[in-house]
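> run fold Glycosyltransferase involved in cell wall bisynthesis
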Amino acid sequence: MDFYDSKTYFCRMGTVLKNKCLLVIGQVWPESKSSAAGKRMLQLLNFFKNCGMEIYFGSTANKSEYSDDLSIFEIHEIEIRLNDSKSDEVLKNLNPDIVLYDRFMMEEQFGWKIGEQCPRAMTILDTEDLHFLRFARQGMIKREEKDLNPFLYSDRTKRELASIMRCDLSLLISKYERDLLVDQFKVPDEILYFLPFLEEKLTKEVQRNFKSFEEREGFVFIGNFIHEPNWQTVLSIKNEVWPLIRTKLPKVKMHVYGAYPSEKVFQLHNEKQGFLIHGRAEDALDVIGDARVMLAPISFGAGLKGKFIDAMRAGTPSVTTSVGSEAMTMGFDWGGFIEDELNAIVDKAILLYTNEEVWNEKLQLGVELLNEVYANTSHCVQFQDQLESVFSNLESHRQNCFLGQVMKHSFLQNTKYMGLWIEEKNKGKDINS
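> ok
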């Protein structure tokens, strides 16, 4: 898909955002073929571009061979460095109107520089998902506990909440996560904005090109292996779910794809068991569209799961858990089955794989879910309205959320002097080397 030709990203040109400068500080350079986070970033960049903004992107990370070429989309790349005064000059000269931080760690690292060099810039935090929620669930599972609440109140939670409070607006991809912030942690609703994936509509022509039930073979899982929930899900499938499915479907294969697989991932490959590790997929929609069922019994995580969006796009029903599907249905039926008990997961996976009538029914539910929720152009229109409102009334917005400004003042002073100390220390190393 050409991200900048999509009708999904409808924006009203000639608005207050036109010709304004946006700086995105990325944790990594976007890799849209490696992760849902990479696709999400391109969707956001596309949105801002269609608002008529001039976009600059910088990251302290190195590019990989899989990094997207942003220049194709007329996005300027700039060099920024951590704990380096040269970045101050870059930021001062650029003087962006809006700064978007890609996850809270980037705000922690560069917030004080932006505050000092570009104090009038509106700041946006793209959370991707709430990291503290994902780690809390991981800790709960690891300790075999039932109550999530004690694991939520961690140092990571304090850091992420503080970062959210310091920014003018934070983007949440999940309504569950927005409600958690507002109801449990009392974060002001005015600084939060719910924005799900922004997808192309599945037209009738696209649906006609879906492979049929009979043309498909096997189960599939896909997910970036840098992401711990994906690795743990594959382990669960291999050790618990797949042996039970295999007893009923002895000739069927389980296909596992994912970017950045380590040696421990490839060690799970077993031809006799029909458990096949393929590594990176050249085209996620192709490999998902070749399979009959997406099998992803996710035990912990946060946010919305890009693999299920891809499954809907490929016309592939899925079996997952309540955590896997969390906040994704938004009042619509799931395009597959949601189960949390092992035997139920196995039974529904087998039913979906062997019953063509059920399979077709679930496929259509997935199409309806994607078209009604994720291909809804009103998301972009409403987001643009919110951005324009905050941008045009930034001073009053900050006064209404003044506690965040207090936290910003205290944190940025402390971080500034720590950053300057590290910079001087690094200079000393350079002299001695």
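The mean pLDDT is 91.
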